[in-house]
Task: structure prediction
Amino acid sequence: MIKVTIWNEYRHELKDENVRAIYPDGIHITIANALGTDEFEIKTATLDAPEHGLTDAVLDATDVLIWWGHLAHREVSDEVVDKVHARVLKGMGLIVLHSGHFSKIFKKLMGTGCDLKWREEDDNERIWVVDPTHPIAEGLGEYIDIEQEEMYGEHFDIPTPDELVFISWFKGGEVFRSGCTFKRGNGKIFYFRPGHETCPTYHHPEVQLVIRNAIHWAKPTNFAYPKYGNSEAIEK
Result:
């Protein structure tokens, strides 16, 4: 069983009736229900819980952390961000969703501003699979169509991804690198673009499949964490 923690800011659902109508129990619970319990041992955590729900015990028992945030990136404790960062370097997988591109943890791991163009006009989004051999794309066709989504457009201020799995196209003419993988230390990171709070994106079966595949891809390996610092000679 892969141990998954789904972190959600959980502010829109409490403030906005339109969002609550789509995700009555929160985006985190919708994703948790979609993943089920056959393959995963799932916990959820939210911003307003003590330590944002990401205590040492929770993080130590997490193989893959899923992150969704938007309104309150600045309210996330730097101490918690540092702990998550350290866990990723030591092998915990991280899946960053939609507006999580501006989260403290994603910016810290990327080392860039992570900015982009956006337009909230309920565009349709076509997510093209540009690496059909990648495990995260397993089970998909050539593209995913999402009828209603917020537009994100290039330039996306991130480092060149290790792998580019998806590119999105919007009816306004924009494109976006919407499925990107990175490695930091022993950890694997996947950024997945769709998921605006006023759109029912996380009810979409193919979006759910991508998240499921990404968990399997990002789970920790059995490789030992390297030893750093002063070291005695191997040869005498």
Observations:
- The chain has a mean pLDDT of 96.
